[in-house]
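Fig. S4 source data, part A: sequence.
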Amino acid sequence: MKIVRVRTDEGIVYGAVEPEGIRLYKGSPLVEWESTEVVAPFDSVQLLAPVFPTKVLAIGKNYADHAAEMGSETPDSPILFMKPATSVIGPGAPIVLPPDSMEVHHEAEFAVVIGSVARNVRAENASSVVLGYAAANDVTARDLQRSDGQWTRAKGYDTFCPLGPAIETEFDPLEGVDVICRVNGEVRQTGQTTDLVFGVAELIEYVTRVMTLLPGDVILTGTPAGVGPIVEGDVVEVDVQSIGVLTNPVVKA
């Protein structure tokens, strides 16, 4: 199932993608929901970020080729940092370049959406707390990250975490799917989930030893090599095989 969150004339609701449109639901897949008889045409709703998390946990240098392009070795344990919930935007929403930075980069990522309260989850049980998977973009003010080493500032600006377009619930990351970034149609990044240094189950175990994850929280699993600048007027696409294409324009503040 592909779960989406949409704005309709009646308000914001969750739904599921069907061939003819979006099947609208009552409630939330994070608590309890119920199908309705309403199927909204695709062009009658606005796609939003599929969840609004309490927190976004991100993993640094989790692809060996990206660690190499950043001039470092792959880490012995996951590098964990956070992006604020206010950085999350949905499909079609603009990435806003802040005046503080002259070098903002795209980072295509495979995202894990948590479906239940998770604390001290062992790797072999990790799938039991996962709602599904989505595409994401860990937008980064690279010059600020280099200048002061404050990853939270460099990665925490409003609009710096596009997420979507849907949550795919029927998915096994161990099978290996492509993670691709295109800017204005040009391929910038390509990787596969099988290339992750630390896999999804390992990351869930690691993160939940540190903090409790709540339903709707998101883990960004890292980005493959090829990160690079985006500028005003660009259109960025993060394409995760079997999940969909997350598209966002780039504007100046």
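Fig. S4 source data, part B ends here. The chain has a mean pLDDT of 95.
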